[in-house]
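Protocol step 6 of 9: fold each sequence in the batch and record its structure tokens directly after the sequence line. For illustration, a two-sequence batch is reproduced in full.

Sequence one:
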Amino acid sequence: MVVEAEELSLFQLDGSAEVPPWALRPSVSFCSTSRSRDKLSVVCPSAACADQPLARQAENGWAALRVDAPVDAAVLAQLSSVLAEADVPACAVRTLDTNHLLVRACSLNAVVRAMVSSEHVVRADAEARRTFGELLLPTCTVATDATGDLPALPDVFGGLWSRVIEEEPPGTVVDDTTLVWWLQAGDWYADIRIPRTSRVPVTAGGELPKLALAAQKSFAGTLEYQGVHEGAGQVTQWHRLADFHPPTGGADIGLNTLSEDGVTLVELGHPGADYSETWERIDGGTNFCVLQLAEPAGRFGLWLFRGTHWARVLGRPTDDACAVSSHVCHSLEHLMAFDAENRQKSVAGTAEPLNDLQQWLSTYEADFGIVEQPGSLHVAHSLRPEHEGRLYSTSLVAVDGAQWEERSGEALLSWRLVQTSGTDAIKQFLHSAHDRSHKA
């Protein structure tokens, strides 16, 4: 299912009226007409009718979801039923080999979440995300800058946290073996999750299978404080500005309760309490600094330092070359299964395969570890198993007091300081000398 990139408009004419010639031009990407004895209804891109006299009576704010490949009436009815259960009105428009569901643009996020919950994969490319913005993916929009207006986040969330247990729903343990670290430095965070099975080689050559690597998780961005909820916990929202997995369309909001000693945090899904995660703080150091990727543009990255720990996350480029960012689904494994099916269809000439899986795995980086001394960092956990146990001797070199450069392979990355607890904190983590060491 594909979110068409253009906003649509609907307008009605008298039943005896002719279809406007401009609506039928080949340059108009979508046009649907239906006539009854009393009315003629026309649906077309808003841009196509913007300069027409009829634009004043147009009902704007519609979107189309395209279902590629022929589907029978039963399949279209099933898709309409999914939307009906989500209380989203939809209108089906059918042609011989293509089907569309028309929905209100303001309902797009509800549509996406409903489809993902029903095991569907929704494609929303960069153009569609630009057109519909927050209406489509309000919590997953990739950004390269902080919003600058986040509410003050209490420092009680700062430090390195390790997850002890996950329950879904609360009371039912679903995971107590996955390695999960969450590093919070100021308003910024990074998270890494490595299942035990993703470190057990099963191939003859001792290599980890791609499916096991795809089961790992990592995301990073800003943590927004939304206040105290009814006197019983603090509400926060994790804005994922980089994510190893495709967006799901849902928001990541938690209702957090801290123990009196500040060591244990219980996070409940909010609202609804659909899951529970228990965390233990393993580093409560107060000094921190945060660097954000400035160049190259079109990619989100963070260096986080807090206490004696650090994290480096480099998200995928935000262009259309990467299928992960342009598809909305449950997980990377879900997208892999969808891609495998696509590849089978492509043999018969009915579908194009998505990008190579190796690109999906290799274009996102996440390393977490311990600061041994300024500029010398031990890698404890990484999405790339071969990095673990190494020393990451950074090539970060200060250009001035607020900008650093890093040599990463053949690429030169520029980072800028976005938040720190003080000048002394920066010296605790980073070299200010001019030597450019390399990654071990």
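Sequence two, same batch, same settings:
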Amino acid sequence: MAAVPCRSELCRDSLPTPIDRARAQLEAGRGTVDQGRGHYGVAVATIVDKDAAVDLLRSEYRALAELGASLTAAQWDTPTCLPGWTVRDVLSHVIGAEAMLLGDPTPDVDISHLTHMRNPIAEANEVWVEALRGASGEEMVERLEDVTGRRLVLLDAMDQAAFDAPSWTPAGRDETYGRFMRIRHYDCYLHEQDMRVALGLPHRETVEDLSSALDEVATGLGYIVGRRAALPDGSRVRIELGGAVPRTYLVQVDGRAAVVDALDGVPTVTLELGASRYLRLTGGRHDPGVAPGDGVVITGDRRLGEQMVANMSFTM
């Protein structure tokens, strides 16, 4: 994959580090690109416009840097909804993910005392989080601007063909590099909101950011309804999103849950909520003082509606 340099890092004689294992996973996927199908039942193009995606990442990197620059020393240590992570730790994760894609040297820290990681990429993230726990706010912003600046140089130099090339992604192996970068925007945008919620700040909602993030979540709707929420066969689901980016999603469970253009009957359950609340729920975020059903209007089968609201997370 073009943006994951330092392939020689995978050829060490010593035992692989978490970063090595994550890089190996990033390098592993190759295959034919399916341009017309999402992995979990919604038709989405995996061919992502390169200029639009890079502009979104540029804007997101800038928003994170500006947020970091505005924080006091005490605010950096504010706990977030992510177990064990402060505001500093969340930004450390973003820095580490971009540094890993650049092939930067792995921090030499011990994470053997940590037991919550479930995959090599999670281990790699925790290495960077642990390494930056002593960094000042100013150092954090400098590190962020350094890695994102270097990433943007590489991204700006790519053409559409490079974005359309086959690539591993967290959503699956047979995808495009453009899809991978849309996922990177989704991850960074979600983490920006993690920081904002923890600090008592309003969500930063733009049509462009919300639209891209919602497009990414839409690829998992069949999985959310059929596997995570485990709605029974015959269920008909309508999701109405309000706010800056109104959307309607329709899902039918006929043996397997799938997004459809029209339901063949009355919805079994309808959920009405704002786009940002939807992103928090599908991102597995349980914010302090916020019950899963807060901000959600359920009509139809209330039991199934509550079952779905409580099980909407599709992120790793």
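Proceed to step 7 once all outputs are recorded. Observation for sequence two: The chain has twelve helices and seven strands.
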